[in-house]
Amino acid sequence: MNTKSVLQQQRAAYQPKLPAALWGNVKSVFGQPTESVADQEKIKQLFPATYGLPELTFEKADESDDLRHPINVGVILSGGQAPGGHNVISGLFDGLKSIHPESRLFGFLMGPDGLVNHQYIELTSDIVDEYRNTGGFDIIGSGRTKLEKDEQFEKGRQILEQLHINAVVIIGGDDSNTNAAVMADYYKRNNIPIQVIGCPKTIDGDLKNKFIETSFGFDTATKVYSELIGNIERDCNSAKKYWHFIKLMGRSASHIALECALQTQPNYCVISEEVEQKQMALWDIVEDITRVVLARAEQGMNYGTVLVPEGLIEFIPECKELIQQLNELTAAEHQLKMANMTPDEKVKYMCSHLTEKNKHTLNSLPDALGRQLMLERDPHGNVQVSLIETEKLLAACVAHNIQLLNEKRGKKSQIKFNALHHFFGYEGRCAAPSNFDADYCYALGYNAAQLVRSGVTGYMSNVRNLTKPSSQWIAGGVPITMMMNIERRNGEDKPVIRKALVDLEGHPFKEFAANREYWAANTCYVYPGPIQYFGPAEVCDQPSRTLFFEQEA
Ligand code: FBP
Fold this sequence. Notes:
The protein is α/β, with parallel strands linked by helices and 553 residues long. It is built from 22 helices and 15 strands. The chain has a nine-stranded mixed sheet with strand order 1-2-13-12-7-6-3-4-5, with helices on both faces.
């Protein structure tokens, strides 16, 4: 029996589009030297071999500008899955073969660990063809190990030299690309001829700046979530008896929630960045949602939809302060002291080091949430926000408010409030890439092959002008150090790629803010339906609303 769905079989034949500059012969055009976005002197010291490199743009060339020889490349998928990863790999594979048919591509297994532990496979055309235009990272698997230590780079070097690999392409988010830059600088300053190239991946949409217009996967994931939200809104509007609290992935920034709100017009959407700017406490958010619930109840609408960004807790000022102090306790000296403690002893130790204010905040949170903040971190030291049930917390607090009101109201004027909860995250991360992500990812991979050919290191593959037809997309590379600043991580100052949060002065947020009161008071749900892969361009090839408002409005 065939294990592929009919759609999968048809979709395998889709030929992703490329920017015109990458068709045929390509020439490299270098721009001016660059500076990091902040903390220039410190970043320069930390990246002595790769700081200040010039931007690079590819242009169509009449003739090949160099001798063509086979290139061997290793590829790593790093961090959370994002739709389109397989197309980055197929684009990279095709790009390398277009440079020389004897070029070879090796995939390191289960993320950075594969490089360090020498676990790899050669990606041949038989393997790559199986995965074209499919979702997931299962072609080689992914992992979250931090690649940052000299010993790891040296262990990687052994296998890279053994396989005669000229370059490593790391497909990852801001943390993984930061590490790509660290590795690039290490090899370059030690005269080790291995290039390192990054590719901007994350459904969270927070790896973007002047040069990286969007990270791949955001488009598809938000389309999947918006379809599901639209379905819930229709159910909600049919039964008219539930308030749906829907948490959406996005570890830090609220781009996913904002994009889904623009696509589906819910009755309420929390934007974490606004919570922080307005210095709202948890109960301020609860009061505001309660206000909307009551206003709708007045109109006889005891139902609605509320979108909650996953990262909210870290933006509520009092929680942020608490998390910042807990982060300091992840520093080495404290870790050493806590090494042999039981979880309960660790909690006690941490509490004894908190300020009175932070102790008070911790005590005001549900127990389970407090323990999660203290104990559960990913390898990059981030709070594991996808485990925190903020949607349930908010719904329970609103229910509490309504109960207090109902106690004061007569039996006949009771407000009905029944909440249901949902969390959408993993549902969207491995979806088959939309046409936008299929094309964008293929172009990023193909372009990465050109970056390797041009001999650069410490660059991120960059394809821009994305709201225009793909033939007009601009391809090139951005030095990764250019996107960096110094931030406090695990109790230490570290160079990291600056995360792009929702810009409250930007067009996407302004569009939302101009409409949200109307969407709250009325029921104007939009039902986007499932991603379409075949059909007219206005149905199949539309970029996200965020990208549209950022680039076109
Ligand atoms: P990346 O930043 O690695 O792309 O991952 C993002 C993300 O999907 C977040 O939205 C989410 O908080 C997190 O990964 C979940 O991590 P895990 O896959 O380890 O559960």
